[in-house]
Design brief:
This is Probable iron binding protein from the HesB_IscA_SufA family. With 107 residues, this protein is α/β, with parallel strands linked by helices. Helix content is 17%, strand content 37%. It has a single domain (3-91), classed as HesB-like domain (Hypothetical Protein Aq_1857, Chain: A, Sandwich). It is globular and about 35 Å long.
Length: 107
């Protein structure tokens, strides 16, 4: 099952609660691409799709399409903040790290 670190949960809760529109949760998807063969996508959504898999991490609801759900098994999402800016990092133990691009490890 996909998981969020405490830092990622807090950051996403702040985004959702601070939105001017009603946000139901976060959609996470996987597409081909990146140097490890996977590229992750994230978007705040007003409602889930009927076929979505629902994962609840604290206050954050995550919606995943069924095809992506199997590819996200065991993945942990963290939020990092540095002098260069902040971003979400996907840690997938089933995929080797990629040092030359960020498409497979962050979004």
């Amino acid at each position: 099952m996909l998981s969020l670190t405490e830092r990622a949960q807090q950051t996403l809760s702040n985004f959702i609660n601070g939105s001017e529109t009603t946000i139901e949760g976060l959609r996470i998807g996987v597409a081909g691409g990146g140097c490890s063969g996977m590229q992750y996508s994230m978007s705040l959504v007003e409602s889930p799709k009927e076929e979505d898999v629902l994962i609840e991490c604290g206050e954050v609801k995550i919606f995943i399409d069924p095809q992506s759900a199997t590819l996200l098994e065991g993945v942990s999402v963290d939020f990092v903040d540095s002098a260069q800016g902040g971003g979400f990092i996907f840690d997938n133990p089933a995929v080797s790290a990629c040092s030359s691009c960020s498409k497979s490890s962050s979004s």
